[in-house]
Amino acid sequence: MIHSIPNASIVLFGATGDLAHRKLFPALYQLYQKGHMKENFSVVGVSRKEFSHEEFQAEVASAIHEHAKGADRQIVEKFASHFYYLKMDVTSEASYHELEELLNVLDRDYQTNGNRLYYLAMAPKFFGTIPTFLKSEGITNTEGWQRIVIEKPFGNDLPSATKLNEEIQQSFNENDIYRIDHYLGKEMVQNIQVIRFGNAIFESIWNNKYIDSVQITSSETLGVEDRAGYYEKSGALLDMVQNHMLQMVMMVAMEPPGELKPEHIRDEKVKVLRSLRFFSEEEVKKNVIRGQYSEGNMNGDQVPGYMNEDNVDPESRTETFVAAKLFIDNFRWTGVPFYIRTGKRMAVKSTEIVIQFKQGPMALYHANTENYQPNLLRIHVQPDEGVSLTLNAKPKGDTPDLLPIDMTYNNNSTAEMNSPEAYEKLLHDCLLGNSTYFTRWDEVALSWDFIDRITKSWQDGTGSKLTHYPSGSMGPEEADELLKADGHSWWEPTKVREEC
Ligand SMILES: NC(=O)C1=CN([C@@H]2O[C@H](COP(=O)(O)OP(=O)(O)OC[C@H]3O[C@@H](n4cnc5c(N)ncnc54)[C@H](OP(=O)(O)O)[C@@H]3O)[C@@H](O)[C@H]2O)C=CC1
Ligand SMILES: O=C1O[C@H](COP(=O)(O)O)[C@@H](O)[C@H](O)[C@H]1O
Q: Considering the entire predicted model, what is its pTM?
């Protein structure tokens, strides 16, 4: 449900950066132009560059015109007038005094009641420093609420994430820490819960009696682009699996919450991670595939391999692709493999979840037909949004054959054409104090614990070997073999049919 956002000041650390320009300014603008933000808010942009308030407002307006579809010039101007700029180095204690002075004036002018949201759109090395200074310099000491949004990555292993968490918790309560995973803001990821728990026909068969396997694919066509500095140390395992892929696994596998309250939902999600089988080195070798893209053809263009990308070590062992077979050892899921795969420079940009159901007890109709398809429930996360269910039917006429048909719901073709962007939904939620779709510390800690074992076995050389796949393909052959060994194959991403 959409509610109006309370009066508040938003401090945006990293206001001249890429994330602020491409995602955060447009997301805040959308909330404003839809009427969810009234006039009582201010945004203070912080970074080291020299800007007057007016120059910054012009920057904000231009970013919105570039990145928010159909932005209205007059509304943008009015919206941008709520923005202020402070040149400051976040590592310098003294500069926080200027921030406090500015915020005190804005609190009064906009009647914010001292409510403040701090958004850290900065490099992770500053994630501990900023909250420490916000508290020590008394900025968080107001009558209103104080919330902090932390971007990814939250640490790069369990020890570093624990240290960071302890640092932040010196200044903010867990309830006021909003760790962003933008996949949790995606319309269809949030829809998984509704599809499952809002439909008795699915929930009653959502278990190992009826489900054969689950597949989650998140493939990208882009390569590393200009992010080698970060990606070389991260790779696909830390960049995508530790957060987005495991979050989708949790959403598919969680038990129904007692109530639709943040802690009820987050409690159920974390239980999935507690039941996730943590791999031994031998199991990593067997169940986790890592690949790196080599040169290839993307839509007719020849593109370089990862090792030839700018700022990448020509001997790099960084993985740009991961596929894995996961096991959730609990009553509901024992015996159901969860296959996940994600990678860069793959054939298509797509995120799709496929639930494959078991065959019925007797092959009455499909014994003699090649057309038989298992029942599949596909949740199309992006670029199309929707759900489709594959059934077997009788083709027209007098034939004993089977015809697989799709029943489809296309979210893109409903009245509200454009689903809100993930960042719009998440900003809206944290301004309202709703932490449902943010990651709680215990989720983060368990996911790192799971991931660290894989990283360690790769570093020790005992885990799976790095393999290569041509750009423009759907990953290395080893990822296909992983499923073939179980008599499965990857379901290729599909489009949601337009006519439905
Ligand atoms: N860009 C994206 O699409 C995504 C980004 N993220 C995460 O968001 C965060 C920000 O990413 P991104 O916007 O790409 O990063 P950028 O490098 O584009 O921006 C970094 C910002 O930090 C400012 N900054 C750097 N050092 C200081 C300092 N000492 N004091 C004050 N300001 C400083 C920079 O401004 P200046 O140099 O002028 O000081 C700039 O505004 C990262 O944690 C990233 O992992 C997550 C998902 C997607
Ligand atoms: O967090 C990240 O996600 C993007 C993919 O996000 P999507 O919404 O476009 O699917 C990925 O490209 C990036 O490497 C990673 O840091």
A: 0.95
